[in-house]
Amino acid sequence: MRFNEYGGEAARLAADLVNASRPLTPELLEPILSAHGVAEATLPTEHVQELTRWCDRLAACFDRQELRQRCEVINGLLADTASQPYISLHDGQPHLHYSSPGADSAAHVRAVTAAGLAYVVCFAGADRLGRCAREACDRAFVDTSRNGRRTYCSLRCANNDAVARHRAKHR
Ligand SMILES: [Zn+2]
Ligand SMILES: [Zn+2]
To answer: Of 34, 52, 108, 152, which has the fewest CB atoms closer than 10 Å, so is most exposed?
Structure first.
């Protein structure tokens, strides 16, 4: 898994896990994990429970909050991943891997999502972790836009909200 200043696939995985409907099940989680390049995506039941608790903690990272507080939340995640970063050469280019080769899929997901969110805060800016401004939506997103001023999870939500505001004004 590759990381860029926006946390790459790992930060997007974190957002998708936060946005996944509850209760989480293996059927729900496995496609999300494999869509984000988690190779070993099979999940025993006890891992689903573990990941549900983890996703609640990931959710807190996207809430609007002071920088210091957000860092504390993410530091808490990093502390609980017990990850052992190492340089991998499996695709020819040196890059960091955050979970040990033998780690189970839940441990792997914990390690990469914590690292991905930390990348966003340290290299792109903490405000790049956000939640959709449309009240009925509230989905978590990673803002990878050039100016970093995204307030909606999608163009659809931005348009819906614009229409609603327009209607409200002309009522
Ligand atoms: Zn790799
Ligand atoms: Zn939205």
So the answer is: 34
Distance 164 CA to ligand 1 centre (A): 44
* Multiple choice CATH, 8-169, 1.10.10.10, 2.60.40.10, 1.10.3300.10, 3.50.50.60: 1.10.3300.10
Q: Residue 109's beta-bridge partner residues?
A: none
Compute, in angstroms, the gap from residue 27 CA to the centroid of ligand 1.
25
Predicted pLDDT of residue 45: 87
pTM above 0.90, yes or no: yes
Torsion region of 107: left, alpha or beta (phi above 0 gives left; psi -120 to 50 gives alpha): alpha
